[in-house]
Amino acid sequence: MIEDDSFRDAGGEKLPLVEEFFSIQGEGFHAGKAAYFIRLGGCDIGCTWCDTPFAWDPGLHPLVETDSIIANAVSSGAGSVVVTGGEPFMWDLDYLCCHLKQNNISTFAETSGAYPLSGEWDWICLSPKRSRPPLKEVCGAADELKVIIEDENDFLWAEKNRELVNPGCLLFLQPEWSRFSEVIPDIVSYVRRNTEWRISLQIHKFMHIP
């Protein structure tokens, strides 16, 4: 990964933009709702099954004026914005959130929890990864815990993280897409036995949309 402090020095008024688009949320509690997506570059978590490895290196993506990103979100007509990555909290998101909220747009974040929070959020989805366990402050702020299940060991990881989030945090288990057929029977069986968990499916992939 390219290290470039200019991303951090921009004070949130410029961000390494991978892509932005208006689509349907495909995972977790808000699945099926329309939202504008802002994908930022940069991630040092390195999940082997990541479906967006092209976002890992922020140096491969243009440093874009945040005002331009905000204007595109506003003009889309979306009522909510999902900021994802990569790992979006590698960057200062105070400016982005402030101006989205000035335009009455709800702010949702998708994070591994490995970096401190910035910005003001209506919903935080925490998807923790073993290589960089989540920070206590992110666990405490999470509205939704979404754990990716690749094999049976991930159920133990899910329960470990369940102990770290607040009691009101919603709990989701999501099959790793490339192993969907292999792991979904185990997830169904687990949720039957542990009914506080729900199943999250990547419905956007079934619909063949971004």
CATH superfamily: Aldolase class I
Q: How large is the radius of gyration?
A: 17 Å
Count of β-strands: 9
Strand content is 15-25%
| Helical content band | 25-40%
CATH topology: TIM Barrel
Largest sheet: 9 strands, mixed
Oligomeric state: single chain
**What would CATH call the class?**
Alpha Beta
Q: How would you describe this protein?
A:
It contains 7 helices and 9 strands. It is of the alpha/beta class and 210 residues long. Helices cover 28% and strands 24% of the residues. A 9-stranded mixed sheet has the order 3-1-2-4-5-6-7-8-9. The protein has one domain (6-206): TIM Barrel. The protein is globular and about 45 Å long.
What's the quick description here?
By secondary structure, the chain is α/β, with parallel strands linked by helices.
List the helices and strands and how they pair.
Layout: H1 6-9, E1 14-24, E2 34-40, E3 63-65, H2 66-76, E4 80-84, H3 94-102, E5 106-111, E6 123-126, H4 136-141, E7 144-149, H5 153-162, E8 170-175, H6 180-193, E9 197-199, H7 203-206
Parallel strand pairs: 2-4, 4-5, 5-6, 6-7, 7-8, 8-9
Antiparallel strand pairs: 1-2, 1-3
